[in-house]
Design brief:
heterodimer, A: 112 residues, mainly beta, seven-stranded mixed sheet, four-stranded antiparallel sheet, B: 114 residues, six-stranded mixed sheet, five-stranded antiparallel sheet, 11 strands
Chain lengths: 112, 114
């Protein structure tokens, strides 16, 4: 099993550009989430989904959109990139009733 | 709502010394508690988890943690540090119920000196 796969691993964007970070899992997990990691801030939840067609906001949702059309995929869209969105982004998945989250390897995004 | 406080953003120990990383939580419901480790430029890997079974939880790489409800703590320990333990460690809490979000502390960076 590949687990949780994130693409791309690195990305540089110009302010105002849009892009989609991809996340796919092959474990048939219901629960998927996106975090951003900034130095000294730990991981902060951006958006999450408890199943296909259901998404909700986390702690820091502004500037990001998500959708969940399939169980496997949970893309994160940056609508108009800002320098404040420079961060490392992690996707995670878990079974709805299970406790452990499995993480992807991360996407390092720089907005200039 | 859940929250996690990790005391000490940086901890430095000598190789062979005891490792103690502190974590205190706040939860309105019985919690699930986790320790994750992140090596440089890597994702997060689960070290161990507490899910209301035994209060002393053993994890990978010789780490263990003890759930103390009276102190709302879940400190991570390892008797003897190894150079390969140098990493950032995150404590996280989730409320029991399946739909609760996983909330992370700000992390503790562990340095191991030769």
């Amino acid at each position: 099993n590949a687990g949780v796969t994130q693409t791309p691993k690195f990305q540089v964007l110009k302010t105002g550009q849009s892009m989609t970070l991809q996340c796919a899992q092959d474990m048939n997990h219901e629960y998927m989430s996106w975090y951003r990691q900034d130095p000294g801030m730990g991981l902060r939840l951006i958006h999450y989904s408890v199943g296909a067609g259901i998404t909700d906001q986390g702690e820091v949702p502004n500037g990001y959109n998500v959708s969940r059309s399939t169980t496997e995929d949970f893309p994160l869209r940056l609508l108009s990139a800002a320098p404040s969105q420079t961060s490392v982004y992690f996707c995670a998945s878990s079974t709805y009733r299970d406790t452990e989250a499995f993480f992807g390897q991360g996407t390092r995004l720089t907005v200039v | 709502a859940q929250s996690v406080t990790q005391l000490g953003s940086h901890v430095s120990v000598s190789e062979g010394a005891l490792v103690l990383l502190r974590c205190n939580y706040s939860s309105s419901v019985p919690p699930y508690l986790f320790w994750y480790v992140q090596y440089p430029n890597q994702g997060l890997q689960l070290l161990l988890k507490y899910t209301s079974a035994a209060t002393l939880v053993k994890g990978i790489n010789g780490f263990e943690a003890e759930f103390k409800k009276s102190e709302t703590s879940f400190h991570l320990t390892k008797p003897s540090a190894h150079m390969s333990d140098a990493a950032e460690y995150f404590c996280a809490v989730k409320g029991q119920g399946g739909s609760e979000k996983l909330v992370f502390g700000k992390g503790t960076k562990l340095t191991v000196n030769p």
